[in-house]
Automatic annotation (TrEMBL):
Protein name, per record: Metal transporter Nramp3
Gene Ontology molecular functions: cadmium ion transmembrane transporter activity; manganese ion transmembrane transporter activity
GO CC, one annotated term: vacuolar membrane
Polar residues composition bias: residue spans: 1-11
Family matches, as PANTHER family: METAL TRANSPORTER NRAMP3 PROTEIN, SOLUTE CARRIER PROTEIN FAMILY 11 MEMBER
Length: 512
């Protein structure tokens, strides 16, 4: 492949043909945003515009929904009940780390005009690509099971227990058709729908916050003053571990392509990156505030009580009702409405992510309704089985949730390492590759997240794994898992710098 020129942020277009390969959005679907003006001689100038920020707003809020899914809400309520306000600072910094990862994902999508799954298909050999795809699909299924069950729990709450868990799963499965219906009306209508759901979450959990009346000083101190103890270490690890979702890294790199950007002009790409950075930051600030609402409500009501360790997503509404009573509107139903909005929004974005992941890795050009049904079926069928098996036991649902958290934790390196590998590569990113300082910070954040999730795995399996045969199987799988991670890291550490060096030398020779 010819070396990437410094003023050209794109992949070499000869490598792919949009008429023959899967793309995130057809040109007719993209939102048109007029680019910036440029001085003669190629010197860019950028002036902030509220109108353009409005036109670029949307992808970041869809991405932020993964920070508000039922799995995150359960982590919030458990950390609040067990650790009080003491882990709010960690929630803030974990959100900041998540923001960094998502900005890198957006950078990759905008600069290349392609999303992470598509680039992985080209950059890795077939066997590695298939493994990455399978691992990402497994993570997506695990996340979707939690989200669908969260919606089903909310439906059971709002129906006063008349709708069983399995029926709630069936109802939630129909959100696929809502998604297809809205998608036919354009990207902006779909984004507006998700904005409404986020607004419902914000109002519901803010209402609960006002009802609970947590101490403002305690909330501020918990947010700004780092504090950790041996008693709260496990919840602290859980707070960080659930923030970065593997499928969300893939999703954001595709969502940013919903805007028409002239990739031939560096200034237009930089403008898009600026607006997406602003929008994503604001979206995650909103998600952080909502997570704080949930954490502080349960910290105020249950921290230091005998039932603190037994609160989970299944029984949280009932405990809230017993603690805070009815009020103007029963808090049980307020919680149910917020949980339903979280579950529905996250399951639909999961379907969205599944389309991009499957289409990108396998280069499938299928009709959208067919891809949506396929990706929806991947999650709904195992979720139905889970709902039928675990419907009668709150304790078994909590155990299931632990296994699903571990399942997703295992997959995080398979999204982070390829992302960092690609955004560091000049042949992919051109002048928009990340610099040395950002590269070091990004790899440190990735290493921290991977180590934290490794701790979760070690702690979980040390308490759950028994029997020689089971231990042998787990050890074998662990060895294969570690070997594949080392393979991915080796490509980033050794292969990419040599390519970058060779590309620089070739460019220098050509210029001379």
């Amino acid at each position: 492949m010819p070396p990437q020129q410094n003023n050209q942020p794109l992949l070499d277009n000869s490598r792919h043909d949009d008429a023959q390969e899967e793309t995130a959005y057809d040109s007719s679907e993209k939102v048109v945003v007029v680019g910036i003006d440029e001085h003669e001689g190629g010197v860019d100038r950028w002036a902030f515009s509220w109108k353009k920020l409005w036109l670029f707003s949307g992808p970041g809020f869809l991405m932020s929904i993964a920070f508000l899914d039922p799995g995150n809400l359960e982590s919030d309520l458990q950390s609040g009940a067990v650790a009080g306000y003491s882990l709010l600072w960690l929630l803030m910094w974990a959100t900041a780390m998540g923001l960094l990862v998502q900005l890198l994902s957006a950078r990759l999508g905008v600069a290349t005009g392609r999303h992470l799954a598509e680039l992985c298909r080209e950059e890795y050999p077939t066997w590695a690509r298939i493994v990455l795809w399978l691992m990402t699909e497994v993570a997506l299924i695990g996340s979707d099971i939690q989200e669908v069950i969260g919606s089903a729990i909310a439906i059971r709450i709002l129906s006063n227990g008349l709708v069983p868990l399995w029926a709630g799963v069936v109802i939630t499965a129909l959100d696929c058709f809502i998604f297809l219906f809205l998608e036919n009306y354009g990207v902006r209508k779909l984004e507006a729908f998700f904005a409404v759901l986020i607004g419902i979450m914000a109002v519901s959990f803010a209402w609960m916050f006002v009802e609970a009346k947590p101490d403002g000083v305690d909330v501020l101190v918990g947010t700004l003053v780092p504090k950790l103890s041996s008693r709260t270490i496990q919840k602290a690890v859980g707070v960080v571990g659930c923030i970065i979702m593997p499928h969300n890294v893939f999703l954001h790199s595709a969502l940013v392509q919903s805007r028409q950007v002239d990739h031939r002009k560096r200034g237009h790409v930089q403008e898009a990156l600026n607006y997406y950075s602003i929008e994503s930051t604001f979206a995650l600030i909103v998600s952080f505030v909502i997570n704080v609402f949930v954490t502080t409500v349960f910290a105020k009501g249950f921290y230091g009580t005998e039932i603190a360790n037994s609160i989970g997503l299944v029984n949280a509404g009932q405990y809230l009702q017993e603690k805070y009573g009815g009020g103007i509107f029963p808090i049980l139903y307020i919680w149910g409405i917020g949980l339903l909005a979280a579950g529905q929004s996250s399951t639909i974005t999961g379907t969205y992510a599944g389309q991009f992941i499957m289409g990108g890795f396998l280069n499938l050009r299928l009709k959208k309704w067919i891809r949506a049904l396929i990706t929806r079926s991947f999650a709904i069928i195992p979720t139905m089985i889970v709902a039928l098996i675990f419907d009668t036991s709150e304790e078994s649902l909590d155990v299931l949730n632990e296994w699903l958290n571990i399942l997703q934790s295992v997959q995080i390196p398979f999204a982070l390492i390829p992302l960092l590998c690609l955004v560091s590569k000049e042949q992919i990113m051109g002048t928009f590759k990340i610099g040395p300082v950002l590269k070091i910070i990004s790899w440190l954040v990735a290493a921290l997240v991977i180590v934290i999730n490794g701790y979760l795995l070690l702690d979980f399996f040390s308490s759950k794994v028994n029997g020689a045969v089971f231990i042998t199987i787990v050890c074998a799988l662990t060895a294969a898992y570690v070997a594949f991670i080392l393979y991915l890291v080796s490509r980033a550490v050794t292969f990419l710098p040599w390519l970058s060096l060779m590309g620089s030398r070739t460019v220098a020779t050509t210029e001379n």
